[in-house]
Amino acid sequence: MIDKLRQQYIKDKIQLIEISKDGVILDSDNNLFKLTKGKTIFDVHPFFESIQYHFHEKSGSEFTISCINLEIGNVTGIFDLTIHVQKDSVIFSIVDFTAHYKISNTLSQEKNESLIQSQILKEREEFKNKFLANTSHELRTPLSSIMGFSTILQRSNLNETQLHYLDIIKQSGEHLRNLIDDILDISKIEMGRLKIQYNRFDFFKVLDLLEDTYTLKTKTKNIEFLTKIDKNIPKYLVGDKIRLTQILTNLLDNAVKFTDNGSVNLIIRLLERKSKFLKIEFEIQDTGIGIQEDKIESIFESFTQTHDANIYGGTGLGLSIVKSLINLMNGSFTVKSKEEEGTTFKFILGFEFSGNQKEDTPLELNLKANTEGNKFNVLIADDLESNQLLLMKILADYGDYYVDIVSNGDQVIERLHQNPYDLILMDLKMPKMDGYETTRFIRQSEIEELRNIPIIALTANVSPLEKEVCLGIGMNDYIAKPFNEKELIKKMNILLNKKTN
Amino acid sequence: MSSPKKIVLLGHFGVGKTSLMKRFIDDTFSEDYKVTLGVQIQKKVVELKSTKKISLIIWDVEGNTSVKNTRLSYLLGSNGFIYVFDATRIDTFIDINEEIEFLNENYPKAKIKVIGNKLDLVSKQSLIDILALKEIKFDCLTSAKTGENVKEMFQDLAQDLQS
């Protein structure tokens, strides 16, 4: 019986072959492959040719090579081979493991395919992210000049018509900046990189700003803007002020855009208060053109526009961002709409009551540097002439600064060794030595005054990590382009006044 | 003809090692990805510039994220290595310098070629820029699909092995 089983299970799985040191087949049991004595093993398969170096190892040595795919005659399979080196010959024991290896083949195939697929998807996402960041940078740079010079031009001696045209240019610039921000936001949301920041903020201040903005916007369209805010809502809450403003702005912008008669209403109610947790409902009603019932579902999809984009403009990203932000803040929302009658968006968000309800002392906008009669020396490092001119013009108009301009990091280092500076405005993307490298160099300087010089990064790169990177390498502050000149001056003066004190 | 040379194709799975071998040996290509289990061995005689001939025995081994995980028995006795990476997947070339260092240290006599495959799927210049940025040295960019540079790359290695 044992012989029978051996015959059935082992004999057909193992072949023993003896060859001479120069590869001539001396003996073979031919259990797997039919080999002819006297012929060379090298003609059987090139595999044997490539293992010749083992034949001359010390007698008694054994070497195993596993999982070899071989096709010999009409036999194909996956084998393990052990080489037994003898004094005058070499013996191969070949074991057929085809069935065993085939099982793991399926598993490996599935595992590898899924890994390759996920790597490719990751690459695509990263490419898209880099592309968007780069495009955003390239768009922001000229936009910074358009917005900055428009502000400067507004202060010059212009007539009413010219001021009106300039206002249109500025508004268009703002609009363009919002569109770029939307595209970046949707990309961050899709990649899961948008994080909600929970901080204490003045809820009513947010609403006051919105009220001012939309009273003005609705006035130009001859429609009404009405607000009804529940007075039981505490003044100071903990939540993400920026993202709440973004949601409300997006919804109010849409309401105003699609309403030509009647009104836009913002109603805010305190729904629930349990311990320090609050639930607030925001309702935005309009009497505009409304949405067809069968299209309501699709309005929250990216790049979807229900109404003619040629008439109403936009990227179709606003509501998709709104929906994602509400979800990220664990909120809920509903939409009701009737064609030709209007639309009502409602969303509910949770906030925390801030233990500190003490009125904030308004920070004085410090637009005056504490020069004590002396002007500050500021070094501008930017390779773009338009940016250089813009910064120079702004600083000259404020009058508290002497300004020097350089175009790259090498020149920054050179100038720092020639003149003492109180502050550097540093572009990040510059030829030769960029802003990052220059900052690192300055922060490692042996001269204490250089090491401590305040540096503000000015960059069109607004990726979420950028600010962290800038502060991490030792910059004191960060301003994204296109920037608000008052914000620039304020940030500069905080650092300069700190330095003086 | 001199003694045959053992060449081992190395690299992550799915980078196109088998496709490169098939393109070189049979001048064929298939879009389907089939995992290689263990090793497949094929032979081709290559004519050198000097009209001398050389036999290349190519070991197409299963993909691995690191050479260190490859079965030692596959690597022993090699005259040359072709380290293949996938130009579309950064994970397949990000650690390449360490991989090559390992091969150089352990197989100092073997000739090594670093190959970026799937060139048909990427912009050549962008790829070169990325590789420069990551300080990755490579010898050749190929496409097993179109055949671009495949024959030349093997020919080049054969020439190196002869000299």
Radius of gyration of chain B: 15 Å
The quaternary organization reads as heterodimer
Please trace the helix and strand order of chain B, writing H or E for each element. Answer: EHEEHEHEHEH
Round the Cα radius of gyration of chain A to an integer and report it: 37 Å
Shape of chain B: globular
Mean pLDDT of chain A: 87
Whole-Å distance between the termini of chain A?
101 Å
- The CATH class assignment of the largest domain in chain A is Alpha Beta
**Helix/sheet category of chain B:** alpha/beta
CATH topology of chain B: Rossmann fold
Strand order across the biggest sheet of chain B?
2-3-1-4-5-6
Largest sheet of chain B: 6 strands, mixed
Share of residues in strands of chain A: 15-25%
Tally of extended strands of chain A? Answer: 17
Q: By CATH's scheme, which homologous superfamily of chain B applies? A: P-loop containing nucleotide triphosphate hydrolases
Terminal CA distance of chain B: 14 Å
Secondary structure class of chain A reads alpha/beta
Give average pLDDT of chain B, whole number: 92
Number of helices of chain B: 5
Count of all domains of chain A:
4
